[in-house]
Amino acid sequence: MKKYLTLKEVVTKELKDLDFKKFYEEEGRRLALGYKIAKLRQKQGLTQKELAKEIHTSQATVARLEGGDYLGHSLRTLEKVALATGTHLEVQFR
How many CB atoms lie within 10 A of CB 66? Predict the structure, then answer.
């Protein structure tokens, strides 16, 4: 009987490839940022449409901001999200 690998086993093996590791980490950061925006919005009890109105954009743009494949996060937009959700934006270089 063929043994199937778990996702964790596959990822652990693939992370040995430096190109894959770099891509994987970048994707993780994008997903984390979108997830954080969605959680901040939800914590304030806002719909995407309501947040969009607060930051002067469209609901579709908020959906893109919360999506893991979006690359267009501007500092100004993130500042607007922070203000609308009562949080503080911090940008770090490590």
Answer: 21
